[in-house]
Amino acid sequence: MPTPPLAVQHTFDCLQAAVAALKARHAAIREANAALLPALLARLFAHGCD
What we know:
Blueprint: H1 6-47
C-alpha cells in the first residue's frame, strides 16, 4: 500500500496534534461552564432579572 510523502505525513501529524489540543481545551471550557451555570442560575433567580 503506498504511503503519502513524508512532508504530508508531518503536516497531518501537526494537524492531528492541533485538533487534540483544541478538543482538550474545549473539554476544559465545557467543564468550567458546567460549574458556572448553577451559580449563574442561582444568582439570577435569587435576585430577579433587572
